[in-house]
Inverse folding.
């Protein structure tokens, strides 16, 4: 068993082309996001940006003139410039486009080159900045990116057909993402990563987001204290993937809640074609198989509850040890709960396997859940109902089979396909060439 497993793990980096760590991009160095920046008193001013007739025709020039707590309002139009909001002098600033119609205020970087093409909007080292009402397209790295901050609000945003991540928070404490869309990104539509551990945790709230057409709907490398609720993840390679990597600080991911979401039809085989280029492999590429609704790759005290999970051809909800980590203290699954979910859409749209678990770790529990028809292993030997404490029953054979799924050269060999009952406004996406739904421009 050790020899076979070692051979499989040695093959992983050479075979996979996804989930390169965030540090691969030209990002600001992580700083200390814990510093509280004093709320400004005002008086505050509003600076207006428009194509003609305003003081500013450049968003960046208006941002440069804005002080703490000021508002930059941007009129409808297309702006071909990246925007940087940097440092304590921009704390509590508001960058507002058209929250009701974010598609009318576009930051388009398709013509940009070099550093100017990386991030449509980047917030670095400025606390409690609000960005609302924009669409970002053509970025090479991220649509809307906040780093080294304590508190932020990203709302009414659309990050479409870009680079790595659509909407992204890194090395931050607290914040809000809501009422936004991330689509057609070559890693994840949404991402929160490297959350610093906290003695008095500040939660990040994510709600009413929509993620589709991405390699991953949500990626959360070493994320903590995040609640994702009342959102939809569909037509991605995999839906929601909280995970642990040593390429970022503070592994593993911990204390997250994924609740009351619709997680369905995550069967996008982007290997067979996509509107974005696939990312080259990195030294720590991670094998996320196509066709999974929710996958815990390592992690502690994560709760997956009250979600509707259906039509994912490989697995609805899965959990597996992060066996690639060299840090023995961070690789095991500890205290995770998968409970009160509804699988299979009342039996009309089953997952390939509703629950999958290699039995690694301690205190992990599954259930009660509704609609569970199939599990892996089929005999249910790795599953115990919640609440539970104590050692789980590890199955090396199950873990090896899960690795085999990830290394499948076809990416579909282990799918269990069934017809999907229709959902208004959503067309199933399996291969981009055969997809008949709305495609990115």
């Amino acid at each position: 068993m050790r020899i076979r497993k070692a051979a499989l793990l040695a093959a992983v980096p050479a075979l996979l082309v996804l989930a390169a760590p965030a540090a691969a991009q030209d990002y600001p160095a992580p700083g200390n996001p814990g510093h509280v920046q004093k709320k400004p008193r005002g008086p505050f001013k509003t600076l207006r940006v428009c194509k003609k007739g305003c003081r500013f025709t450049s968003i960046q020039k208006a941002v440069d003139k804005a002080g703490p707590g000021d508002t930059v309002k941007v009129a409808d139009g297309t702006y071909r410039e990246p925007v940087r909001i940097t440092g304590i002098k921009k704390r509590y600033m508001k960058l507002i486009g058209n929250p009701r119609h974010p598609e009318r205020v576009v930051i388009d970087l398709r013509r940009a080159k070099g550093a100017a093409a990386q991030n449509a909007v980047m917030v670095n080292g400025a606390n409690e900045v609000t960005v609302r009402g924009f669409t970002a397209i053509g970025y090479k790295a991220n649509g809307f990116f906040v780093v080294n901050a304590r508190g932020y609000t990203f709302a009414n945003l659309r990050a479409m057909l870009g680079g790595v991540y659509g909407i992204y928070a890194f090395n931050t404490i607290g914040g809000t993402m809501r009422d936004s869309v991330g689509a057609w990104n070559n890693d994840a539509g949404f991402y929160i990563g490297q959350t610093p551990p906290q003695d008095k945790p500040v939660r990040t709230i994510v709600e009413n987001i929509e993620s589709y057409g991405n390699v991953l709907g949500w990626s959360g490398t070493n994320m903590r204290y995040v609640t994702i609720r009342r959102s939809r993840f569909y037509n991605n390679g995999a839906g929601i993937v909280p995970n642990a990597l040593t390429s970022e600080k503070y592994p593993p991911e911990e204390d997250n809640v994924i609740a009351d979401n619709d997680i369905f039809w995550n069967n996008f085989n982007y290997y067979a074609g996509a509107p974005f280029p696939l990312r080259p492999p990195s030294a720590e590429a991670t094998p996320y198989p196509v066709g999974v609704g929710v996958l815990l790759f390592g992690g502690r005290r994560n709760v997956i509850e009250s979600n509707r999970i259906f039509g994912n051809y490989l697995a609805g909800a899965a959990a597996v040890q992060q066996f690639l980590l060299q840090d023995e203290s961070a690789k095991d699954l500890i205290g995770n709960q998968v409970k009160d979910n509804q699988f299979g859409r009342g039996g009309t749209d089953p997952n390939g396997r509703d629950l999958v678990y290699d039995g690694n770790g301690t205190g992990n529990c599954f259930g009660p859940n509704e609609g569970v028809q199939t599990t892996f292993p089929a005999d249910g030997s790795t599953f115990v109902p919640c609440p539970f404490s104590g050692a789980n029953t590890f199955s090396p054979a199950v873990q090896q089979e899960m690795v085999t799924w990830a290394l499948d050269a076809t990416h579909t060999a282990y799918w269990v396909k069934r017809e999907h009952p229709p959902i208004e406004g959503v067309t199933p996406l399996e291969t981009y060439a055969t997809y008949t739904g709305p495609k990115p421009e």
Residues 2-15 form the longest helix (14 residues). The two ends are 49 Å apart (CA to CA).
